[in-house]
């Protein structure tokens, strides 16, 4: 009871800091789970799930308990609905297409297999044995003629079945006898005679020409490349990759060497581009900017990307320039703060000119990742034409303390039974938990108990398979 009251009254930042120091408080989680409304319940109670009215960017402080934060699930919906699928374009069939989404369904350009062929090395036979044996047909060759009943020809796996052949006898199931009148093939004991059609791959077994093999929106994986090649494609029509520019803000950031004199290494510059590519983006530039409003304004206004992602400067500190710059650019804030920990100062803005959207990720590295999962991934999926991944849930192995009113995203690893074990070192400024994690569990306001099913966001495969462009 005491725990419950403490948690209910606690400053949200206190809770975040307690977690950052690894002082998870399972008791508080239990108590609050009973007291606080579950986000999903709130959503059901408001099935419309409408976004808060959009606001023009204001130069004033945001994301610091100003009351503008929207629920986590709502923020994802707003981000998903903020853009439109980009146009399709032809892409050579190869690694360059990996990670893009098919703009049209993949329709077979041929029957597969394209012809009747042998599934085994052995002999193509016609009718019942013994068979008089002559010649051989290898993969890629045309058979020289028709087989009559009682005739056989040597055949390799994948070779065209000669017309008239009724079955294939595997090499290990037959014996060849040399006689004065030629070579004769018999079924070797104890094997049965091949049934009609045995070990024959029939034309069209896998698909008929014109059949849809994969729907539009399928992400191009290595397997899709293989299937498309088999089905006759030299290029694919894929949805263009959203062009994304990353602006890393912060005078305190170092590109190399050890942290020193109050400065820290930039952890986001090396992390975000690969992550964004895995989400289907074409990362056109990563720029580090000093904390200067005019430099930021020029960089945003001058960008020709579809989406600009900034890191840092989202809060209300003395050199946090993102809000004022958006206000100067006449941006509309679609999301200005999200009820999620970490990451609550994240924002999504629509710009009147230049890049269509800007997503401001908080500077704390795990908070930035929370912004990637909450705003960037849903928007990129829409722009890139990716389908929504199937959600999945896993039981938690331990109680997880909740925030009184916000969703928490907590790094977890799957154990041998596919249960999710919450990791320590999950404070907003930490990456140690995340780097060891398989996913991020979504902990509703109030927390969750051991055994509760928690939704888990995949990390390597955020929002779909992680096939980057490789560049
Ligand atoms: N008075 C308040 N202050 C803060 C609040 C609040 O509610 N009231 N919220 C805190 C939270 S939560 C977050 S998250 C941060 C978000 O701040 P910004 O987006 O403005 O980020 P910065 O101030 O620029 O940086 C925060 C922190 O992260 C470090 N950082 C920034 N960029 C990087 C990078 N690329 N690699 C590694 N580390 C980075 C930076 O040095 C700071 O330590 O605001 C809190 N403050
Ligand atoms: O809690 Mo902040 O949003 O560090 O991430």
* Largest sheet: spatial strand order: 1-20-22-23-19-15-18
Q: Which ligands does the model contain, each kind named once?
A: ligand LQZAQKY5, molybdate ion
* Low-pLDDT regions: 1-54, 59-67, 461-471
Question: What does the average pLDDT come to?
Answer: 86
Structural class estimated from helices and strands: alpha/beta
Share in helix: 10-25%
At the first level of CATH, what is the class of the largest domain? Alpha Beta
Brief descriptors of the model:
single chain; 471 residues; alpha/beta; Molybdenum Cofactor Biosythetic Enzyme, Chain A; Molybdopterin biosynthesis moea protein, domain 2; Molybdopterin biosynthesis moeA protein, domain 3; 3 domains; seven-stranded mixed β-sheet; 26% strand; elongated; disordered N terminus; binds ligand LQZAQKY5; binds molybdate ion
């Amino acid at each position: 009871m005491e725990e419950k009251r403490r948690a209910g009254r606690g400053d949200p930042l206190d809770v975040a800091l307690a977690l950052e120091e690894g002082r998870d408080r399972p008791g508080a989680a239990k108590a609050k789970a009973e007291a606080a409304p579950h986000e999903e319940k709130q959503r059901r109670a408001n099935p419309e799930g409408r976004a808060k009215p959009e606001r023009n960017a204001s130069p004033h402080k945001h994301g610091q308990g100003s009351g503008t934060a929207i629920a986590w699930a709502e923020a994802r919906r707003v981000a998903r609905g903020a853009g439109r699928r980009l146009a399709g374009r032809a892409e050579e069939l190869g690694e360059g297409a990996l990670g893009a989404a098919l703009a049209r369904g993949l329709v077979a350009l041929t029957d597969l297999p394209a012809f009747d062929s042998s599934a085994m090395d052995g002999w193509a036979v016609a009718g019942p044995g013994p068979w008089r044996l002559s010649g051989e047909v290898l993969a890629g060759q045309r058979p020289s003629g028709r087989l009559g009943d009682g005739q056989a020809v040597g055949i390799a796996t994948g070779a065209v079945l000669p017309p008239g052949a009724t079955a294939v006898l595997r090499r290990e199931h037959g014996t060849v006898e040399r006689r004065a009148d030629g070579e004769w093939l018999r079924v070797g004991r104890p094997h049965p005679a091949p049934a009609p059609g045995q070990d024959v791959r029939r034309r069209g077994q896998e698909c008929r020409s014109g059949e849809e093999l994969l729907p539009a929106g399928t992400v191009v994986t290595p397997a899709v490349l293989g299937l498309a090649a088999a089905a006759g494609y030299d290029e694919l029509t894929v949805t263009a990759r959203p062009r994304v520019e990353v602006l890393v803000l912060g005078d305190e950031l170092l590109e190399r060497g050890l942290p020193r004199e109050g400065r820290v290494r930039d952890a986001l510059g090396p992390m975000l581009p690969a992550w964004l590519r895995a989400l289907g983006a074409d990362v056109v530039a990563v720029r580090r900017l000093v904390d200067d409003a005019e430099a930021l304004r020029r960089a945003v206004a001058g960008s020709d990307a579809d989406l600009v992602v900034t890191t840092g400067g989202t809060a209300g500190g003395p050199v946090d320039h993102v809000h004022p710059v958006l206000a100067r650019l006449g941006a509309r804030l679609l999301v200005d703060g999200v009820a999620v920990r970490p990451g609550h100062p994240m924002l999504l803005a629509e710009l009147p000119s230049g890049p269509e959207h800007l997503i401001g990720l908080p500077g704390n590295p795990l908070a930035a990742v929370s912004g990637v999962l909450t705003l960037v991934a849903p928007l990129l999926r829409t722009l890139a034409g990716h389908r929504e991944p199937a959600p999945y849930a896993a039981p938690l192995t331990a109680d997880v303390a909740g925030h009184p009113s916000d969703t928490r995203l907590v790094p977890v690893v799957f154990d041998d039974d596919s249960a999710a074990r919450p990791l320590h070192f999950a404070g907003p400024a930490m990456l140690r938990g995340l780097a060891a994690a398989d996913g991020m569990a979504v902990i509703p306001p109030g927390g969750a108990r051991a055994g509760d099913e928690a939704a888990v966001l995949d990390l390597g495969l955020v929002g779909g398979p992680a096939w980057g462009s490789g560049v």
